[in-house]
Design a protein that fits this description.
Blueprint (H helix, E strand, L loop, with lengths): L4 E6 L2 E6 L4 E3 L4 E2 H19 L3 E6 L9 E3 L12 E5 L9 E6 L3 H9 L2 E6 L15 E8 L5 H17 L5 E4 L5 E8 L5 H16 L4 E2 L11 E4 L9 E2 L15 E2 L1 H6 L10 H11 L11 E2 L5 H7 L1
Parallel strand pairs: 12-17, 13-14
Antiparallel strand pairs: 1-2, 3-4, 5-6, 5-8, 5-9, 7-8, 9-15, 10-12, 10-14, 11-12, 11-16
Helix pairs in contact: 1-2, 1-6
Length: about 325
Amino acid sequence: MAGHSVTVDVDGRRLRLSNLDKVLYPDTGFRKGEVIDYYTRIAPVLLPHLADRPLSLHRWPDGVGGQSFWDKDASRHAPDWLRVVRLPSPGSSSGNEEVGYAVVDGLAALVWAANLAGLELHVPQWTVGPRDGRREPDLVVFDLDPGAPATVVECGRVAEAVREVLAEDGLDCVVKTSGSKGMQVYAPVQVRDAARTSEYARQVAEHLAAQRPGEVVAVMAKARRGGKVFVDWSQNNPAKTTVAPYSLRGRSQPTVSTPISWNEVADCRDPEDLVFGVDDVIERVSHDGDLFGALLGERYRLPARPRVARDRKR
């Protein structure tokens, strides 16, 4: 039945869904049809976080045990109704090359992406306007990556430290699991220069590395990261993306990058405390709503320098 396909109507768009019985997560038997079903059910809270953000799709057409690839240029195979924005390629040295990114602006576009075995949805910290012009970043992100034997438990302690630093600058923040090993902290911001979020995040990361040298590292070199949490500030580079909240991950299990509460961060004592599958996430949203909803509201002016960095200079 791996070749089974159906044609469905999604919000007035006709979509041909193929290979619905194909197993994409062999360890659990989780099938492509279940991937599409999950994204359909989570769409009400996921779609606002994808709105107006160019999509980088990480696809596993043969399942997580097979080869994966990044699919950023949707213009080659997008249906004519899908919004595609043409933007300069991040890897272009000349600056003349463009990529036609898909923008997931509704349920039909989300189902289209899931049908491509696009398990992971990655988006930048900025949006495009109605004429497809790139806006300045509206999010700042701190990607916390543990170096073994550190785990997401240690990421939680560092996330709390990031939260304290941001609170000094009047920034409220939210946190999610990466769905893999780490954790990510986000705050909604206003900036006039695309470089500002990277500069601010770097200063926060370097401050934490100086304050907690046994726990935190702010440089990418793997040799420096053993047993510590790498605060990756570079994810704010406008050319980079991070996995979207509520996205599946291409791991052995169908885990999800899951928004969590700060109480859950504080209470985490075992990595398994913060591992969530599709059923967990659907149930959490039904009870708690969108724990990332704060990113869709008021945006805070990002200061020129973190207060902790200014205080250290005195």
